[in-house]
């Protein structure tokens, strides 16, 4: 994911894959087959993700349980929005993108746009 280091992205992947909040040890166990990591490393990564706003945490006894502050889909949509906003020519980017989507993706977009109804879309940016 944009804005995340390799280990931060791996931790976020674990949190997005598994439902509910998780302790540091739970995340470490999920990462263990692929990586040899110390408990304190994963704890530091989760603390950094919390500080950056990627995860929320709740106290459970003497330990925190962590969960993503937004879904993978919401984060991806925000990243796309940021890319559009920084593109300089939003219309041209959207036209190129529209020409690249599959028939199924086109259906999803058309359905979403028709469900939005008139006047419900945000003002164009950029």
UniProtKB/TrEMBL annotation:
Keyword line: DNA-binding, Transcription, Transcription regulation
InterPro entries linked: BlaI_family, WH-like_DNA-bd_sf, WH_DNA-bd_sf
Homology family: Belongs to the BlaI transcriptional regulatory family.
Name of this chain's protein: BlaI/MecI/CopY family transcriptional regulator
UniProt source species: Pseudonocardia acidicola
């Amino acid at each position: 994911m944009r804005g995340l280091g390799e280990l931060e992205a791996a931790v976020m992947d674990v949190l997005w894959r598994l439902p509910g909040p998780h302790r540091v040890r739970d995340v470490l166990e999920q990462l263990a087959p692929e990586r040899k990591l110390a408990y304190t490393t994963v704890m530091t990564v989760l603390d950094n993700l919390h500080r950056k706003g990627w995860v929320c945490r709740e106290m459970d006894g003497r330990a925190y349980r962590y969960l993503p502050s937004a879904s993978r889909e919401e984060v991806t949509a925000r990243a796309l929005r940021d890319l559009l906003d920084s593109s300089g020519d939003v219309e041209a980017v959207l036209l190129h993108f529209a020409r690249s989507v599959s028939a199924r993706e086109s259906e999803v977009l058309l359905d979403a746009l028709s469900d939005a109804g008139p006047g419900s879309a945000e003002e164009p940016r950029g």
